[in-house]
Sequence to fold (308 residues):
Amino acid sequence: MTEWDIKKLRILRTLRDRGTVTATAEALRMTPSAVSQQLTNLARQLGVPLLEAHGRRVRLTDAAHLVLRHAEAVFAQLERAGAELDAHVRGEAGRFRIAAFSTAVPALVVPAVQSLRADHPGLDVRVHEAEAAEAYELLAGGEADLALSLAAHAPTARDPQFGRIPLLADPLDVALPAGHPLAEAPGLRLADLSGEPWIFGGSGPWSEITTAACEAAGFVPEQAHSAAGWTAILAMVEAGMGVALVPRMASAERRGGPGSGVVMRVLAADQPRRHVVAAVRRGAEEGPAVARVLHALRLAADRRETAH
Fold:
């Protein structure tokens, strides 16, 4: 009977995800030689070659990919077993780690943590601010229990490693300099701003979201200035250097009250939105701590949607 060694299978999966033996060793806090030895032993146990030379690197064989397809079901079942054991042993107590992108922390995570502290004081929630790529590395490596990201940068629903849960459709409003000819225009649409200079990041999620929203409205935005932080973006808008899309969830950074140099406008029919999702390791959805945290996050999301 073929032997299936869970520890070695996790090493093989990490190599698939990280791409090199060196990166795998760093992620698992092992030496590269120990990684290679473990994978050699696994290949001997399974009776099939798992790696093949590819230039100066190695890559997984078709047999290795076949093994991992079946191993994902094993990993998911182990997550379920761990979740049930946690429910039996820990009950309400334990540590829960959330990795979340920057604007989600004050808008969703902090209210959820406050609610959990009141309702489940034994649950110790730890927060790690991280963009999507890092958040999913932490989740895959067992260093986070839940990741919050934008749907466009989350794994697909078919990903065997993660389960995803929709949380919020966050509207995008437009920031205009006070005194702009369209600042008070009724029925403002995104297409009305096609000739304006735009301010958004040079790359990454916000660049893609701004570009996609404008293209859906029928134009390609002219990027006059590049910035990633809301303080910098809104300072440039206030100075009359351009216009910008701002997520409503970034309320702590927004301006727009009396005396402000920035006017925040809700767009008319073509209101763009960005979608926020939570992800957990597949199989962990049934854990009581995951359920409690997701419930708190959903309540925080619902309160935001009701308030706006």
Q: What stands out?
A: The longest strand covers residues 162-177. The CA atoms of residues 112 and 296 lie 5 Å apart.
